[in-house]
Structures are given as C-alpha cells and as structure tokens.
Amino acid sequence: MKKSPGVPEPSSELLQRALDVRRSAVALGQTTDQDRRRALMSMADSLASNADEIVGANAQDLERSEMKGLSTALLSRLKLDKAKLLGAIEGVRKVALLPDPLGIRQLNRELSEGLVLERRTVPLGVLGVIFEARPDALMQIASLAIRSGNGAILKGGSEASLTNETIMKALREGLVNTPVDPHTLELLTTRQESLSLLRLDGLVDLIIPRGSNELVRFIQDNTRIPVLGHADGICHLYIDSCADLEQAVRIAIDSKTQYPAACNAIETLLLHRDIAASFLAKAIPIFKEAGVTLRGDQASQDLGVQIAANEEDWAIEYLDLILSIRVVSDLDAALEHIRRYGSRHTEAIITNDKKVAERFLGAVDSAGVYHNCSTRFADGFRYGFGAEVGISTQTLPPRGPVGLEGLVTYRYRLKGDGHIAADFASGDRCFSHKDLPL
Amino acid sequence: MKKSPGVPEPSSELLQRALDVRRSAVALGQTTDQDRRRALMSMADSLASNADEIVGANAQDLERSEMKGLSTALLSRLKLDKAKLLGAIEGVRKVALLPDPLGIRQLNRELSEGLVLERRTVPLGVLGVIFEARPDALMQIASLAIRSGNGAILKGGSEASLTNETIMKALREGLVNTPVDPHTLELLTTRQESLSLLRLDGLVDLIIPRGSNELVRFIQDNTRIPVLGHADGICHLYIDSCADLEQAVRIAIDSKTQYPAACNAIETLLLHRDIAASFLAKAIPIFKEAGVTLRGDQASQDLGVQIAANEEDWAIEYLDLILSIRVVSDLDAALEHIRRYGSRHTEAIITNDKKVAERFLGAVDSAGVYHNCSTRFADGFRYGFGAEVGISTQTLPPRGPVGLEGLVTYRYRLKGDGHIAADFASGDRCFSHKDLPL
C-alpha cells in the first residue's frame, strides 16, 4: 500500500463508523425503488421542518467566518439562506423522481440449457465525498447517494461545520421510520478524519471530491480508492479555416464568458492561420467589450493581440476572463497542441468542412468533442441526466458529465440447476450462448 | 505523484518509444472494422510463416531455462511447440472475427433543435501488459489490443525473451502494408523498463497484469494507472440447509477439483449447521478420492474433517487441492464470513429455497454471484464473450470476466449549428432532451 506522508491511518473509532455505514449500505442496496423514493421524500420533509434551525446554524457559521476574514467569494458560497435552502430541498425531491439506476438488466443470456447469466446494475457500496464551503452540496450528494443505493461518508469544509451538522441531523431524522437506515449517512467533522477517509480502501468504493483543483489533485495523489472527477479543465476551441466567422466569434465568446469560473469554459483558442487575421479583426473588439484579456503567441500579437502568451499560458486553467490564443498552421498542429496541453475534458471545432470535423472528433481524446457549438454544454443537466455528480476526465468509464449512472456498477448472476464445468469439458453438455430478451 | 521505492523514472528513450506507440494508437483508433480485421489476419499469416523461427527461438529459451533450473511447471508454461503455436495463431484469427467493440452508439439524444449528443465507444488508447512465462499470452493480448483499437506496450518474462522477440518481430512484420502501423505494438525487454512502465501515466491508460498474485499486488501498489485484474481469487461455496445434497456434493467437487489452480476454484466451503453432518458424511469420502485435503473448524472436525483450519486458512488462495470448511449457524453468518474473507471474485449458494437464494445474490458483493452451479463458470469464454482479457474484482466496471468490451471507453460527441449556452440561460432556446433511435 502506498504510504503518503501526512495521510494518517484511520482511528479505530473511524473504522467502526465506516463499517457501520458499509453494513447499512448492504441493506440499502436491497431496498426497492419505492423504498428509496420514500426515504428521499422523507429527507426533504425533514429538511423543510428543520429549515429555521439550518438557516440559524448557517448564520452562526457566516458570522464566525466573517470574523476570521473569509473572502467575499467564499462567504457567498457558504451562505445558505431560506430561499437557497428551499431550492436545495426541491433538488432532493427531484432526485427522488429520477429513474432508478439499480437492477437494470444489461445482459440476459442462456449459457446452456437451464443455465442463465444475467448482468444487473447494483450500487457501488459506499461513497466518500469531500466538498468545500458550499453546504448545499451535502444535501445534493446525500440524496444522489441514497437514490443510487449507496452509503456515504461526507466531509464538508470547516467554515460550514455547524450548518453541515444541522443538515445531517435533519437528513438522518428524515430516514428514521423509512426502510433506509440513518447510519447509511455519516458526517466527518475533523481534518484528521477527512484525511483518513482516503485510507479506507475496502470500506469506501469511490471518492468524489467537490472543490478546487488543488483539493482534487491532492486526493488523486493520496488514495488508492478510485476518484471521480477532474483536477484541470483546460478546454480548447479550434477555429478551422473553413469556419463561419460570425458563428466562430459567437461560440468563442460564449465558451469563454458565459461562466468563466466553470471547468467547461475555454482557456485557449487555436486559430487556423488562414482565418486568424479576419477572425481576430472581428473578435478582438468583442472580447474587449466583454472584458476578456487576450494573451497571444507572436503570430496573434502581429494581428492585434496586445499581451504575449508564454509557455505557462498553454497549461493553465484561468477560471477567469483571460484567454490564450495561438495561430496554428493546420488541423494537425491544433491536434498536437491539444494532445500536449489539454486535460481531456471538452474541446470544440468550428468548421463547415464535415471531413475536417470528423477528423477532429475522431482524433481528440477528450471526454467531450464538439462541432459548431459552445463547450459550455458539457454538463450533466444539459445532457439530460437530471443530476450531476461531477465531470470525469479519466479514460475509463464513467467519463464526461456523470449522473446517477456513474454511481452504480454491475454484478453477474448465474443461475443453474446443478450445472458443473466438468460436463462441458467432457462434452456431455455444450454452450448455447443464446441471448434472451432483456 | 506517488513515489514508490524501486520503481524507476522512465528513461527518455522509453518515453520516446511510448510516445510513438501513443501516436500510432491515435491513428489506429480511427481505422475501420475491416482495417483492423485485415491487420489481425495479416498478423496471423506472418506468425504462421515465421513458425519455425518462433519454435526454434523457444527451444533456445527452454534450453537456457532448463540449465538455470526453472521448475517443471514453469518450463511447461514456457514451452511453445508447433501445435501450441498453431493454436495461438488460430486464436488470433478468432479475435479478428469477434464483433467490433468500437463506434457503438450508446446514446443518441437531441438536446435541442439541431443540437445532437451521441455517446460512442472509442479505444482506451494504450495498454500496458505485463505477463509471466507463457509466450502465447503475447499473441493473444496483441490481437485483442489491435482488435479494440488500442496500442500495446508488452513485457514478457525474461525466460521467454527470445521467443517473445521473435513473435513480436513476426507480428510487426505482419502489420507492414496494413492500415495499422507496426509501431502500435512495442515489446519491453528489461526488468528496469517493465518497472518504468508503471510510471507512464498519461501515456498508458490501463495496465493488464497476467501472472501470480504477487505480481498483480506489486503492480496495484506501485502505479497510478488503472489496473485490470485481481490479486486474489478466494471463492466461497455456501451449502444452505435447504440444499439438494447430491447436487451440493457434485458442485463442491467440481468447484474445487475441475482445475484447482484457476482463480475461480473455491477455497472455502461454508456449511449450514443443519446440513453439515449429512453433507460431510457423503462428501468426505468423495473429496478423499479426488485427492482433496480438507481443513476444518472445530464443528467440521467433530463431523470427520481430520485437519484443523486456523485463521490463515480463511484468507488464503490455495490454488491447490486443499479446501477449508466452516460450519455456520445461518445465512447471515455465511454472508459475514464472505464479507470478511472474500476477494469479491465469485461466490455460490446451493439451495432449493428461492428466497434464501435471492437474499444471497442480493447481499454478496462479488463480481459473480451464483445459484446452484459451479464457480468454475466465471470465465469470459464460458460467458460467451469470445475472448478474455482477465477477471476484475474491483467495484467499478469493468468487473468480472472482461472481454473486448473492457478495452474500450466512450466519448461524448456533440454537434450543433452555432448553439451557445447563453441562449438557453436567457430562455431564447430550451432543451428538448429527446432520445433518438440508437
């Protein structure tokens, strides 16, 4: 096992709590769709009847954090007023209504007469969730976990500790008298515990970090448990020589400015050299008006970009109204740039040449590859998943925006009537491998 | 990045070779089904026309290894005579005929008018394969990699070095004049290189170890790249009080003895206390006849098992004609034993009580859960996958026996006509989320 300095061994008390979550999760995995819907509705009701207490706890967290000098941006993420809380409660009810991701039969095959193999979706087991400031994430993730049949061990930011504890108390109260054991949800409160969570291999099946790039990277580097998510979102937009200029400018502006702090906003614009001059002539004033600072390579500086981009600019996620621009000789040069600096999140091409588009969509190895539209569509809600756990940039599934489907796995169930392998080895029986209706 | 003692940084020469494989793999990922079939057939032809050279190289490896005192078991795995080679070549041709795992549309959804999202299977990229002794694994894995559109960096055992080099030369010769670049396949020859392979994150997408439990565990503990496979296969068979005795004995014998060195053979038999006496009275002589040594807890010793099992026996994969036996008070005790000692590979229950069976299939958290049949069916060929890369005991997919399907991932492709997110935020456009035919 990889020992990471600074990541402590779990205490026996934490191990016991994790084991309790795991045991409750096994029972949860066997509940029906109706059971879990009822549990979520009851969680929502309990949150609603504890709303004043939750908002009060949040006011205390806010006051303490203000005194500690937390930044305005973080304070605004920490704040949970009545309206925001009611929105989050509505979110829990919406998750209850999403289709059940469990028990879906993905394979149904007769292996031989009387020997039938099924592959059915089952919960992962226990999720470990580490999130920063925003206390509404606690309600969202807890409801996604229960809906998908998973236990969850959650750790929120210390700024929100009182809010989180009050929310968790309400959620667990909501589960009393439902078919779901309140022990399915567990809240960690100390930093020590949240670090130890990374060492709970065998008890926690998936870690979901919700926070800064640094948080995600730290977690990825310090656990053997699979991590769902991404550290960087360095998305590219490539404007081909065959692009519709007006469309290209509109999509570039949207991809950069519609919400610059999102992971699916672009950081780098790659321009085919044949269109660079006319594109920049049109785009520079519009970017300027939108408050976007442009940083360019020599060729784009020659065409009016005023600030020089250096090597580091190609590898950074600004999360801000800054955009790096590079002029490339052709599609291959654009692909090479993306391969070198991209983070395999989402890349888009603007072109009216379908062959060029197909080459781009085929060669770019990102979770999302787009043609003639904004990168900002990379999102579970926009994809129609109803909920989003996060966006994964890893190679193996689940990748891209991940909904409830990413919180389940499958199990092979084989039913026979005394079937043994020796009879097949001897030739007394043989395999039919006949697919049955799903 | 996790630094592991003894795992060296890759040399610049190895990085360059890995980069070449990656580049070739991008091109491979865009070939057609026919292209890849042709490449495999040509690989098979080249192996056939180099057969004498391969068998000759193997004779030299065998001679050297015999002089070094390699065990008879390992020598027999190393041996590649003409018949075995022709079988392996036939295997390559069979892989060529398997259905294409690439380009399968898993999702086809109109997000809004003119904005269509597809999810299609694509190759993982580059596989890193580390296998011991058996040189036929090289041909099998190389063909599975090419068939699924993946490059492969392979490292075989040093005993088989001349055989592997000769096979690799033939495979690459076979790829000349096909649409697949010979650089898609790369063979590592030194131990130093194979260790560095574990550090090629970003260039290698999946590590497939084929070898001993120790090899797999070492690899899992020393790489950040996902590892497909399993270290232990500690499979359990639980005989419920409601079992058909004759069936139970037959399945127990098959699960243990049909091929005891396989990972899907059972290591522990759990007996419901109400059936333990009658089962053991019937089974002990049959196990004895089959050469199986039984090790039991106190209760089963009281019923005739002669050797005592200690705590370690519950946690070991014998890979031999040894079976540990424990008498349990009920289903829950059996489930608790499996939860504690199992490796989440395959577990089976024998019972005529359907409710008990359903509880077992629902509560056991293994890749395979079986009812009234032998655990020996846990195998990609028996499941009808046509080929098997390995068996995964991890929670996340792919798990269980993994065929070509486990060597692909997916990509979201979104095509629009100037669509931007701002129009949806403003309400000018709205999402339809209409599923289209696949």
List keywords for this structure.
homodimer; 438 residues; alpha/beta; Aldehyde Dehydrogenase, Chain A, domain 1; Aldehyde Dehydrogenase, Chain A, domain 2; 2 domains; seven-stranded parallel β-sheet; four-stranded antiparallel β-sheet; globular
Description:
The structure is a homodimer of 438-residue chains. Chain A has 438 residues and is of the alpha/beta class. Chain A folds into two domains: 12-221, Aldehyde Dehydrogenase, Chain A, domain 1 (3-Layer(aba) Sandwich); 235-377, Aldehyde Dehydrogenase, Chain A, domain 2 (3-Layer(aba) Sandwich), CATH 3.40.309.10. Helix content of chain A is 41%, strand content 21%. In chain A, α2 crosses α7 and α10 (245-257) crosses α11 (273-289). The mean pLDDT of chain A is 94. Chains A and B meet through β2, α10, α14, β13 and β16 of A and β2, α10, α14, β13 and β16 of B. β16 (408-419) of chain A pairs parallel with β13 of chain B.
In short:
With 438 residues, chain A is of the alpha/beta class. The first copy, chain A, is built from 15 helices and 17 strands.
Count of helices of chain A? 15
**Spatial arrangement of strands, main beta sheet of chain A:** 10-9-11-8-7-12-13
Tell me the domain tally of chain A: 2
**Secondary structure: helix percent of chain A:** 40-55%
| Contiguous runs where pLDDT drops below 50 for at least 5 residues of chain A | none
CATH hierarchy, class of the largest domain in chain A:
Alpha Beta
The CATH topology of the largest domain in chain A is given as: Aldehyde Dehydrogenase, Chain A, domain 1
Most extensive chain interface and residues per partner: A-B, 76 and 77 residues
Give the number of DSSP strands of chain A.
17
Please tell me the CATH architecture of the largest domain in chain A by its name: 3-Layer(aba) Sandwich
Oligomerization state: homodimer
The Cα radius of gyration of chain A reads 25 Å
The CATH homologous superfamily name of the largest domain in chain A equals: Aldehyde Dehydrogenase, Chain A, domain 1
Mean pLDDT of chain A: 94
Distance between the termini of chain A: 41 Å
Structural class of chain A: alpha/beta
- Measured by DSSP, the beta-strand proportion of chain A falls in 15-25%
Largest sheet of chain A: 7 strands, parallel
Based on Cα principal axes, name the global outline of chain A. globular
